[in-house]
Amino acid sequence: MLDTKPYLLESDFPPVYREKLSTLQVNLGYLCNLSCVHCHVNAGPTRKELMSLEVVDLIIQALKKLDISVLDLTGGAPEMNPHFRYLVSSARELGIEVIDRCNLMILHEPGYEDLAQFLADNKVTITASLPCYSEENVEKQRGKGIFDGSIQALKILNGLGYGADPELQLNLVYNPQGLNLPPGQAELEADYKRILKENYAIEFNQLFTITNMPISRFGGWLLAKGLYDEYMGILKGAYSASNLQTVMCRTLASVDYQGYVYDCDFNQMLDMPLIAISKPKPHIKDILDADLTDKPIAIGDHCYGCTAGQGSSCGGALSD
Fold this sequence. Notes:
The protein is α/β, with parallel strands linked by helices and 320 residues long. The chain has helices spanning 5-8, 53-65, 84-93, 115-121, 135-142, 146-159, 185-200, 216-224, 228-237, 265-269, 304-307; strands at 23-27, 70-74, 97-102, 125-129, 170-174, 206-209, 252-255, 261-262. It has a single domain (5-307), classed as TIM Barrel. The chain contains 11 helices and 8 strands. Strands 6-5-4-3-2-1-7-8 form an 8-stranded mixed beta sheet. Strand 2 (70-74), helix 3 and strand 3 (97-102) form a beta-alpha-beta unit. It starts with a helix and ends in a 13-residue tail after the last helix. The mean pLDDT is 90.
């Protein structure tokens, strides 16, 4: 696969500095039951990388010491890590909000039949990928049969109270196709809610629109098609300085399956470690007693993806 990293490192993106750390985003491994076109971590069924129990215990230690309020679990399919439920239960016992970035299809996999109930019992916030309300568009990105399976999974979650019970938050994620930036989040959310309600009787809380990053699988596609420069021109042309104040990397640290720490999930995929600590590659154990506030963030041209238009983060748009 072609790599965009050499093109991203020399950047004129403005400096960004950290605020108080409140969110720990943890990648539990690259094993996944799907292989989506827009996946920026190249996850799939043949990947073997999974976080060990030793590192999971360090994550729990970090949750206790760093006054973390949100644990954001991602992958791959994070639920496929054998220590997923242990980590979720431990974090919830500490009163920490847990977000599960769920691809929905995992709820249908053999051996995961009780997963939805486990998530509901632990009041886990589910942020689920549904890149469009159109079957055709979803299957272009994620594969044949994925749309119907996702709809059925959403109905399972609704049946448990997700989307209706205030303690059971269900959020959906939209990714655009090709060179497009996401449309207005509020307007698209209204469309999603109307169409999913009318056609499938599905309810959810919020829609998050996320810009596709010019890295990993999508970045390789851009280079292979000769579209990299055009896409970067779109991102830079839509740059909004006001989004710098709310980019997720200011209050979030991203941890890979081995326990190494980065400023965000995208930097993790580019192997651009946290620079707030004077170590070549900081590990989670290195930040247990560290204050990252006001320290610099590692940046590159991909950061324009987070600041284009309404802005983009793991929590959706940054501005109205």
